[in-house]
Amino acid sequence: MSEQATYRPGELEAEAQAADNRNRWILALPAVVIITLAAAGPLLVMVVYSFLTPGDYGNVVWKFSLEGWMNTLVQRDIFDDTLIWADAHLSIFWRSFSLSLITTVLTLIFGVPTAWFIATRPPGKREFWLFLITVPFWTNLLVRTIAIQELLRSEGVINLILLKLGIIDAPIQMMFTNFAIGFGMTYVYLPLMVLPVYAAVDKLDFRLVEAAHDLYAGRWTAFRRVILPLIKPGIIAGSILVFIPSLGAYVTPRVLGGGKNLMFGNLIELQFGQGRNWPLGAALSLMLMAAVMIALMWYVRVTSREQSDG
Amino acid sequence: MIEIDKVTKTFGAGDAAFTALRDVSVTIRENEFFTLLGPSGCGKTTLLRLIAGFEPPTIGAIRLSGRDITRLPPNQRPVNTVFQNYALFPHMSVAGNIAFGLEMLGKPKDEIAKTVDEMLRLVRMEELKHRKTSEISGGQQQRVALARALAPHPEVLLLDEPLSALDLKLRKEMQIELKRLQSETGITFVFVTHDQEEALTMSDRIAVMSGGRILQIGNPREIYERPSERFVANFIGESNFLNGQLSAGSVTLEAGGTFTVEPPQGVADGKVSVLIRPEHVTLAGTGTKGAALTATVENVVYSGEATVAHLKLTTGEAIKARASNQPGAGGALEIGAQVGLSVAPGAVTVLVD
User: What angle in degrees, to the nearest 10, is found between the helix axes of A228-247 and A87-119?
Assistant: First the structure.
């Protein structure tokens, strides 16, 4: 009784608060450990390696050097040692960027109507369509990409059909082109566009669409003025989910693009493999990461601005 | 003027088919405050959606000022809707919402700005012009929805239970506000509600609906005082239903008393049901002159401005008597007491059953 009487106001709350904080930290601990060991640690290693000198047989020599970073964009002329642009790298950057952009646009063109179709089915039937969208995830990416190869190659399904129909006289060379990479990546990343757009359309209040029609908006105007702004977060999320992995895609360009049409991911792999230039590989990886971060920051800015004014 | 001509609306097909409207015909006059009143599922919202153009009728035609609009899409009808949950565009400001219809009609910018300000003044929302619609209260959203629908100056304004989400006090205010807007703008209002009191207070005419049919159309007084059938009488206001014998323009109740009535068409002499509103039944001492009925007090309910006595007639039929409370009076009625009841002349209505 006397103890209770000496309690100062707020003390109980403060103690409960402290206990609560302690519990939260304990719960967060496994995540913190995993993130530190599996994400932050390797990243630090990468940063360090990018500033070291390549060893003769891979690995690194512990000697500070900016060569790795310089080599991402420029290279020394083998004859007079002057610095010239690393054309090969630049064309790979450009191919990665443009193919990722094209992939994003294609997944948008195919994904948004698909998502719309699914979201406007009766509730009981949507699961079925969503299930179909997720089926490809059950199979290994490599297997799926090789299946695409079967479609595209000179004796493949598409060429065979076109030949039989008499539309073409000779097989079209589709394999090992940018087209093949774009085709494959669109196929592989389409679900990543469909799912977030579906979620956005699913949340869309269709009475708003009715209201737009009621206020003299035709179908296209209602889409542009009401539907599109409201599903925009889903479209942006889908675009990022497609664009980012496209930028670093490895398997698809490797299988469908052959050895010639490298993308960013293949270039990085090359440095750690045949190239034996780990610092360059590390620097390229960090560059890719920076590009991804810029894309994400743009997303955050666009969506937060959306929320503040609208 | 809107003419609903023999409209039937069926949703779905086969075994799952559901008929929301059955052969509905009604003419809504120009500048009228017309109310569709009925319980949920009676088809009143479906009828409104047909007028708006969100659904086509299965059978029948809808004409607006003589023009057949049955197959016209909603964006080509000079009709605007105030939706039940307002359906304000969340990504636009208050002003943006109000301007939307005008923009769609391709009005010049300065005219749009002028009309938006005018509408904001009309619904008394000037100071909230640039707010987001999520940042304003329910009552304010309601006003924005009204302003948005009125801004293009439609021939007809459709209101789908627009007040049902508001609390009582705000609802009363908005009822008066809506009446004011209707008389100021001169636009025909078609108002959907399940609230009989709201319908009586606001409407020029009311159509009472049930099971996809219109049961009775009339002004509030007709609907309340001369309901055509038991459903209408029961749905609107408090009612007593008693059995009686109709002959030659007067009804003799089984419980006693004979009253002069105007029987509706199609009711033959013989056994009939009659309606007596509780406020037309007055308690009197037994044997009092003019007391036609005798009853036993079963329960007395005090509700502030009035007291309702629940009574049992000698025939076993239940009857309610409602009296306004007077200052200083009260507490005289004892449960179980025998009382005389008098019924105001003209208060007995014969129902089509």
Answer: 140
